[in-house]
Design the sequence.
């Protein structure tokens, strides 16, 4: 579904992405992990067309994304920190996003809005919301249009345990529908029961891309956390 | 972009303009002197507010822009709708704050020309602000650049002109000055408006040369066209930059 | 028949005791003014009754009192000088003169006086004449309560309203002059008075005054003339209580003074002129008790002026108070009221405690470099003026009013 071939991105002297290639298929749930500054967010932004690579290209359903913008219709994106126009209410924001997304083509999935009890707060302005509530809005927006690809940047950061659990269940539900889900997170334990594939990045290099079973056999560790840790200690595979 | 219209700052801006203009017209005994004082608002306050408000607005919306970019929208559309939203909001406050009082006191061609120039200047400085904001990532630096740009257009440029005038005092400079005035939208707007007012007689020979140009329909059209260019070129450049920008 | 009448009148009129009054008019025995004048003897009166007289050039060569009743019309048919006066002591009263000839070679006029004295021209109305009332080599003449209106567009093809040349002891009073080249023109005219006239919308000057010494003009209004009023190459001129209004244009002055000495400018109003007073080569002139309101420059004093006293004037609402082109200032400012003065008066003597500098930095810049006028009303110029006020560098240090008044003078 998403294919990146030798994508390189440089910010000044810093090489954020160095010749990264990857393939993501439908039905996979991929965890993008790596230390801070390893290029995870940049990679996601490249896929979303927010960052334009210096070289290499990315295709989405076999179409180059550089000249296309409609493919984003298929993607639900939840940013690390969502910031929205301060004077808008939640209701207006949702209405605006629906307007942008031209609903009618997609059926609207308002599960999360219900589950997070956002319906009671539709008249609240965005600037009055707490960080956690804003995250809930971001998550709700990502799932709202029932997209075939979900890209979640640190989805559970800032959420209380209950909401975090709600979100996780939602992710699992979507995964079962056969969607491609791409998650970055540093809280590894959170992801254990979701992930089917792991991409590990360091200093802009994609070190490996393996299925979770493969990883377990390679490292001999049962738990994902430990498997990753052992990868980090060995430094390379 | 109702969001911008709802912002308190823009309401305060409108109110200040309104009060200032009414005060000016109330204090001055004749309307044409009032117009001259309103000119100061248009040439100093309006560009300053437009450029700074727009820059800050863009920086404050950076995350929102990110969100929009991740949506199935063309970047050009996103950027232009920001630009148009800001331009409409600022023009509207100008029209309410200055335009209405002007039309109450001076319902004639000069009044309309002032409103036109004010609106165009608002758009120009929104465009320039957006160009600055798209170029510079850091908010503090961006706002600093916006202020610098304003200082350049309202003070430094004229200082430079003054310097050149004295350097080349031995040459007839009136005609080259026509060209130079096109290089600064504030100057162009100022001269355009001054020549429509009766103070132009004070500008002597220089004024006469300028009047020969700006007084004609061709001159008026050309200068309006140059003002349009001033809003279009930064706008175009900023769209190109934004299309290539990493968010 | 006509001949008979004329002969009859010659004999009959004196017999019936009307020896010094001759009646001319459509219903009278004498139909033509020329004939009437012909029959008149020196000292006679000629009454002209209402009518339309088209008699070409009428010459008055003897002392008569020519009186129009209800403004009889004299038409010059755009060919002739209408009335030519060549005798002393004549009076022309109450005519309407229209369409004099226009010539570039000869100064055709509505009424022209040739080398005569004690002539009175009064209560006439002139329309569309080349020159209006023209006086040369006159003495003790009075031009009073006439109106003259011309409709010229260009300076070269127009004459002056009241034109006086090489004359002495003339009184010009209560006339209304519109649309000529110069409203009132004085050249080599001495000991004369111009009083209570209204001169407006003339193409060049409302009053043009050259080589004319010891004259007084007072209580006149000069309104919206092409270039205002010019007083040049004269001494002993008294300009009192005149009104200089709205002489507004690229090269317009309320009052242009050039090479003037030993004169007074007192109690005048300068309102809405591009330059209120422009002075060049002026010396020993007193400018007292005038009001300068809403002018571009209230005064422009070139460095060639000396010993000009400027005192007890009001300066209000002028864009620039004083402009000058040099650093040498030999003129004195004292006790004026300046609306831009922002000093204080601690000892409450109604005189400001710190001096006022009426020349702004920007006005100096413009004087040195006229194209700098394109920066008029820009931000930088007001900044420069503010800076200059704190640390004077370019403006002449000696051009200063050390005793500015705190309150406007009532005048």
Sequence:
């Amino acid at each position: 579904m998403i294919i990146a071939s030798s994508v390189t991105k440089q910010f000044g002297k810093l090489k954020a992405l160095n010749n990264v290639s990857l393939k993501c298929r439908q039905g996979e749930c991929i965890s993008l992990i790596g230390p801070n500054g390893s290029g995870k967010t940049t990679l996601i932004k490249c896929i979303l067309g927010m960052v334009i690579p210096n070289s290499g290209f990315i295709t989405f359903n076999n179409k180059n994304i550089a000249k296309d913008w409609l493919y984003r219709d298929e993607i639900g994106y939840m940013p690390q920190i969502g910031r929205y126009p301060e004077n808008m209410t939640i209701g207006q924001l949702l209405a605006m996003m629906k307007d942008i997304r031209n609903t009618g083509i997609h059926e609207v999935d308002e599960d999360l809005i219900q589950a997070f009890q956002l319906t009671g707060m539709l008249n609240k302005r965005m600037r009055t919301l707490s960080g956690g509530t804003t995250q809930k809005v971001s998550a709700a927006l990502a799932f709202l249009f029932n997209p075939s690809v979900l890209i979640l940047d640190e989805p559970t950061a800032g959420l209380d345990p209950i909401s975090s659990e709600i979100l996780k269940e939602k992710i699992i539900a979507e995964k079962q529908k056969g969607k491609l889900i791409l998650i970055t997170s540093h809280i590894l334990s959170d992801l254990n029961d979701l992930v089917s594939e792991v991409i590990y990045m360091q200093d802009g290099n994609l070190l490996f891309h393996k299925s979770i079973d493969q990883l377990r056999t390679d490292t001999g560790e049962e738990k994902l956390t430990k498997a990753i840790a052992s990868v980090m200690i060995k430094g390379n595979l | 972009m109702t969001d911008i219209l709802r912002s308190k700052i823009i309401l305060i801006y409108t109110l200040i303009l309104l009060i200032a203009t009414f005060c000016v017209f109330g204090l001055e005994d004749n309307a044409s002197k009032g117009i001259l004082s309103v000119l100061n608002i248009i040439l100093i306050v309006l560009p300053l507010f437009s450029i700074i408000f727009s820059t800050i607005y863009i920086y404050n919306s950076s995350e929102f822009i990110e969100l929009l970019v991740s949506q199935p929208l063309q970047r050009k559309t996103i950027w232009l709708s920001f630009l148009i939203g800001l331009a409409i909001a600022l023009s509207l406050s100008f029209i309410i704050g200055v335009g209405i009082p002007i039309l109450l006191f001076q319902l004639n061609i000069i009044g309309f020309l002032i409103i036109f120039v004010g609106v165009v200047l608002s758009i120009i400085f929104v465009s320039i602000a957006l160009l600055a904001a798209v170029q510079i990532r850091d908010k503090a630096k961006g706002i600093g650049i916006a202020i610098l740009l304003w200082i350049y257009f309202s003070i430094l440029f004229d200082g430079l002109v003054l310097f050149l005038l004295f350097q080349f005092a031995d040459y007839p400079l009136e005609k080259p000055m026509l060209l130079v005035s096109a290089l600064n939208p504030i100057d162009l707007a100022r001269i355009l408006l001054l020549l429509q007012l009766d103070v132009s007689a004070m500008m002597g020979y220089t004024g006469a040369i300028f009047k020969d140009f700006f007084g004609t329909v061709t001159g008026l059209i050309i200068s309006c066209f140059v003002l349009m260019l001033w809003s279009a070129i930064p706008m175009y450049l900023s769209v190109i930059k934004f299309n290539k920008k990493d968010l | 028949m006509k001949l008979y009448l004329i002969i009859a009148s010659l004999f009959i009129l004196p017999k019936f005791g009307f020896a010094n009054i001759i009646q001319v008019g459509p219903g009278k025995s004498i139909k033509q003014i020329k004939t009437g004048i012909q029959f008149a003897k020196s000292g006679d009166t000629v009454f002209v009754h209402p009518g339309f007289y088209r008699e070409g050039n009428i010459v008055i060569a003897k002392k008569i009192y020519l009186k129009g009743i209800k403004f009889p019309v004299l038409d010059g048919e755009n060919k002739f000088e209408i009335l030519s006066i060549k005798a002393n002591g004549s009076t022309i009263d109450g005519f309407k003169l229209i369409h004099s000839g226009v010539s570039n070679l000869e100064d055709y006029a509505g009424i022209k006086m040739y080398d005569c004295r004690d002539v009175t021209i009064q209560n006439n109305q002139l329309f569309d004449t080349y020159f209006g009332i023209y006086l040369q080599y006159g003495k003790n003449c009075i031009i009073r309560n006439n109106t003259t209106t011309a409709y010229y567009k260009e300076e070269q093809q127009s004459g002056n309203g009241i034109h006086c040349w090489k004359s002495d002891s003339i009184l010009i009073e209560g006339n209304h002059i519109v649309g000529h080249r110069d409203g009132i023109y004085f050249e080599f005219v001495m000991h004369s008075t111009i009083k209570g006239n209204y001169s407006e919308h003339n193409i060049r000057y409302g009053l043009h005054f050259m080589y004319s010494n010891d004259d007084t003009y007072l209580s006149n209004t000069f309104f919206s003339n092409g270039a205002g009023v010019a007083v040049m190459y004269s001494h002993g001129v008294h300009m009192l209580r005149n009104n200089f209004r709205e002489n507004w244009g690229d090269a317009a002055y309320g009052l242009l003074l050039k090479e003037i000495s030993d004169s007074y400018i007192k109690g005048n109003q300068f309102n809405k002129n591009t330059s209120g007073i422009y002075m060049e080569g002026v010396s020993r002139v007193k400018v007292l008790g005038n009001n300068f309101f809403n002018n571009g420059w209230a005064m422009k004093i070139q460095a060639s002026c000396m010993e000009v006293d400027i005192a007890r004037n009001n300066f209000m609402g002028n864009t620039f108070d004083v402009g000058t082109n040099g650093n040498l200032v030999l003129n004195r400012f004292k006790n004026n009221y300046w609306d831009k003065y922002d000093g204080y008066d601690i000892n409450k003597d109604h005189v400001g405690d710190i001096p006022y500098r009426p020349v702004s930095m920007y006005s100096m810049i413009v004087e040195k470099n006229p194209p700098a006028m394109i920066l008029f009303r820009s931000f930088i110029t007001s900044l420069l003026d503010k800076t200059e006020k704190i640390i004077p560098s370019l403006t002449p240090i000696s051009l200063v009013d050390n005793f500015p008044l705190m309150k406007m003078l009532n005048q």
User: Anything to note?
Assistant: The CA atoms of residues 5 and 11 of chain C lie 10 Å apart. Residues 2-15 of chain C form the longest helix (14 residues).
